[in-house]
Amino acid sequence: MITQEMIIADIIEQHPETLPVFKKYNLDCYECQIADLETLGHGAGVHKVAIDQLLTSLNNALKQ
Prior knowledge:
- With 64 residues, the protein is mostly helical.
- It has one domain (8-63).
- Helix content is 52%, strand content 0%.
- The chain contains four helices and no strands.
- It is globular.
């Protein structure tokens, strides 16, 4: 399960199936050096993405 406290780069590395979700929300985290240090919750806030919707989409991607 993905949580908002997780580091973005770790999510992408451990769950590459989430990459389309990041792209859907216009989060180009896979290209960002900050992703190695930034939590999902912080990144969503910076980019004004609703964290609840993002978490739902990311966790749904894990189920597919």
